[in-house]
Amino acid sequence: MLKLNIAQQRLHNQLITRQTFVKTEDVVSWLCAVQAQDYAAAKWALGLRMPNATGETIEQAFASGAILRTHVMRPTWHFVLPTDIRWMLALTAPRIKAANTYYVRTLGLDDTVFSQSNDVLAKALQGGKQLTRTELVSELKRAKIATDNVLRSTYIIMHAELDGIICSGARRGKQFTYALLDERVPQAKNLYRDEALAEIANRYFTSHGPATLQDFVWWSGLTVADARTGLEMVTSKLMCEVVEGQTYWFCSSKPPAEEPSQTISLLPNFDEYIVGYTDRSAIFDASHSQNLDSRGNVLFQHTIALDGRIVGTWKRTLTKGTVLLTPNLFISLTKAETHALTVSAERYSAFLNMPVHIN
What we know:
Layout (H helix, E strand, L loop, with lengths): L5 H8 L10 H8 L2 E2 L3 H9 L7 H10 L3 E6 L2 E5 L1 H18 L1 H6 L4 H15 L5 E2 H10 L7 H13 L3 E3 L8 E4 H4 L8 H16 L4 H8 L3 H9 L6 E5 L2 E5 L13 E4 L4 H4 L26 E5 L2 E11 L2 E8 L5 H18 L3 E3 L1
Parallel strand pairs: 12-13
Antiparallel strand pairs: 1-3, 2-3, 4-6, 5-6, 7-8, 9-10, 10-11, 11-12
């Protein structure tokens, strides 16, 4: 029987206490998908998992198309690889579309409208063009497709992503652009459905484990039946242990016995270490919820993890040429732990290429 330290194993498997890869795309590949609706936070989520990464490192990978940002699960934006985007969309898009049904109907959208809007967006982006959302909405208006309601244009563009028509282009200044997927990713592997279920299950439990079937269902957005099918096909590659009546699956790679030790991690909001699980009791004490901001959900916070346990939150304030980092700690830190916090802040400073001062 193993003695499973869930937080320690997750830190290790999620590349937080080991930086195995030096390329942005390799980190995304390992994690399979990285939630990315807060772009700046998502860049740091990748950067903290790489040695000597900077914001520019991530930006270059995004601009070149080495990683893409699209709606692919739950639904929200995720970073994914070009080689994965098509099989992942084939697997998850039907579930997202089903979840969107109410809003789609309320907004007067249907298959006929989506067919027209997809054609308009595809023609607008042909020839390697990369256009902003505002520019795409102008093209839709020109084609007499109603977009006065912001939500209507949002769902039209999301649907085009889910249909594999468009994906992210490079940023234009601070604005995001869209590109034609067939031009941005001319070739990518397609998997049969069972192959896709096995692939996503294997990569999730390898990179996010120890995790339960229920965690996988939440993260992937798959049905329980599909998630179980995927897991059953890869159990021979995984280890499992029952903890308090829950079966946890994970890869066999073990962290060093001494790891972690007074390790402080500054995690961004929606980090995979938080968002990758429906049950967060192994890393977050619910009694600390009263210390969170008005939204009251640990998902929305930048968090401070001590040896994998969430012990506080942090905020950053950008001033001219510097960043003020303000921690909100739930516990008192020892001298060694305070030093570890300073080391983490220095690493974040190097990532931003800006001085960071702890308030």
